[in-house]
Amino acid sequence: MPAISTPPAARKGAGHVKTRAQATSVAGKTQDLARRVRADFPILSRQVYESFPLVYLDSAATSQKPRCVMEAMTDYYMQYNSNVHRGVHALSSQATEEYETARSKVADFLNAETDREIVFTRNASEAVNLVAYSWGLENLKEGDQVVLSVMEHHSNLVPWQIICKKTGAKLCHVGMTEDEELDLEQLEEITKSGKTKLIALAHVSNTLGCITPVEEVVKIAKNCGAKVLLDACQSVPHMPVDVQTLGVDWIVASAHKMCGPTGIGFLWGRYDVLESMDPWMGGGEMIQDVYLDHSTYAEPPSRFEAGTPAICEAIGLGIACDYLSSIGMDKVHEYEKFLSTYMYEKLSDIDGVHIYGPKPPKERAALCAFNVEGIHPTDIATIMDQTTGVAIRSGHHCTQPLHRILVSDGQPFASARASAYLYTTTEDIDMFVSALQNTMSFFREVEASL
Question: Given the DSSP bridges, would you call strands 196-202 and 227-231 parallel, antiparallel or unpaired?
Answer without folding.
Answer: parallel
